[in-house]
Design brief:
The protein is of the alpha+beta class. It has helices at residues 7-57, 74-78, 108-112, 122-126, 208-211; strands at 118-121, 146-150, 155-156, 177-182, 187-191. β4 and β5 form a beta hairpin. It is globular and about 85 Å long.
Length: 217
């Protein structure tokens, strides 16, 4: 004999399913956010390998566009060392953070136009103010120095005076964390409390030391 659900039983089943969905959806959303953060850290590790491969092939120098210009087109120089072809339309997704709403993909041509989800430490990595040339890895005495960070610009500096595009971007953990890569190769998610760009350099966030200087304090 077939059992027919009563209206009360059907309402009970619908209620249980709705409760389950209400519980699972936030969990799934949280997992997706964490996945983006992890994928971004993987991208930074990949770019770290590319930066060091570039230095290996260029007399230990980090990428810089010219002795007189610290604003290096670093991404296009590193691209071949992370498997990107030097063709305008070639995919360059190694330079895309999954949490960066501006880009779903990038090409080598975009890198030449200084588009990237990550900014390089302009003063610490690309420019040596002692001689106006690039920085050698051997010049760096601070293993915690920032190499790359989530950013809206291709280059970041340790103060807000050059505008918000030059400040690391907190795009993880609902805008409360920034992914960064250190000189020693460590990629980490750094929790920050920054309501405005200049807050990024307060103690507890990314102050001048130890994140920006080539030398130890």
């Amino acid at each position: 004999m077939k059992h027919c659900f009563t209206r009360v039983e059907l309402l009970l089943i619908v209620g249980i399913l709705s409760l389950g969905a209400a519980f699972l959806l936030p969990v799934a959303g949280r997992a997706a956010v964490q996945s983006q953060t992890t994928l971004c850290l993987n991208q930074l590790n990949r770019l770290n390998a590319g930066l060091n491969a570039y230095a290996d092939a260029n007399d230990d120098y980090f990428p810089t566009s010219s002795p007189a210009n610290y604003q290096a087109e670093w991404a296009s120089l590193v691209a071949p060392y992370v498997g990107v072809k030097t063709e305008t339309s070639a995919p360059a997704d190694a330079f895309v953070c999954p949490a960066d709403a501006r880009f779903r993909s990038l090409t080598y041509g975009d890198l030449l136009a200084k588009k990237s989800s990550y900014g390089i430490n302009g003063y610490g990595v690309c420019w040596n103010n002692q001689n106006g040339q690039g920085v050698r890895r051997a010049h760096v005495r601070n293993p915690d120095m920032l190499l790359l960070a989530d950013a809206d610009g291709w280059i970041v500096v340790g103060y807000a005076g050059e505008g918000p595009a030059r400040v690391p971007k907190a795009r993880h953990e609902e805008g409360k964390a920034v992914n960064i890569l250190h000189f020693d190769g460590t990629a980490e998610t750094k929790m920050v409390n920054a309501e405005k760009p200049e807050d990024m350099y307060k103690e507890g966030n990314l102050p001048t030391h130890p994140f920006w200087s080539r030398n130890m304090r």
